[in-house]
What we know:
8 strands; 51% helix
Amino acid sequence: MQPASKLERRVVHAAEQALERHSHVSPLDVLIGLGWAPPGLVTDWKQGRAPHLEAIAAVPADRLTDALEIFRRWVAGRGLRPSEVEYLAATRDRHPLRFTASNDPERERAYRTHWMPADLPESQRERLTAQQSKPPDLVVMQAVRPFTCTGCGQTEAELLTMESDGPICLVCADLDHLIFLPAGDAALTRRAKKASRLSAVVVRFNRSRKRHERQGLLVEQAAIEQAEQECLSDEDARARRRDRDRERREAADETFQQRLAEQITAMYPGCPPTRAAAISEHTGTRGSGRVGRSAAGRALDPDAVRRAVVASVRHEDTPYDELLMAGVPRDEARTQIRDDIDRVLELWQRRRP
Length: 353
Ligand SMILES: [Zn+2]
């Protein structure tokens, strides 16, 4: 038998360590253990900022291939059992993550295959596989410099999320109904995230540290309110609510919002007045980039008004947000809920009894 090479010893060491620590081991664990896939860059890749894993690796692709070949032999000798795991990007479209530049199906599958001890009880295997395939939290970035949305072409947006074609604004990503909750209060954040059907982590690139840092969370307005209720005994929570209410009042364009609400009621007499008010407050907020702030929206163009109402119905009256949170792609989710939207609109178009 040939003596083990230096690389062989390092690969086996990394694999044994991962297996001991997590009861399973993946090719990515080994590359991280070797120091060839730096964790910060792995995060970039998982959040859609690198085309594939090879692009962020510290060594050329053929070195990765050597290491994975050693890993394959070690797995066979160890008698481990395979289980294929899903790797999804933490982006709005939740696209499958790519590992190789060549995108060769066999090598991609090898990367997705995790290995567990053969004697692990079935229930524990299932739990581990489900855990590893869970869709990641959505991630939204604060723009460090102005960008052009690849969806609508606007250049004013401050938040973006990456899709395969490039950055898109939150209006195009259907995330613009969410409210920013700055980091800092762990209890409030945890409760708001739990109460929100759809949420996203907000990060910002820190140039000097060369990494993305967490700034807070985007959650539903109702989720913040519920979380605040739960925390309300504490004085800070009350102060923060006052700040947020003041910001909302400053951004409000009340005359326009009033006219928009009247137009919604004229077009949809069955829409409850509180909903019409909420829709116009939401879409008419200054600096929001929402349909209520576009030229057509300002002119109360029926098409623009309809779009604002549809957006609200989509988030409030259909399972759309739950579908997105579960990783269903946006187009597919929209197809699934189309009938639900039509039903609500039809109801609202009738005059209320
Ligand atoms: Zn856009």
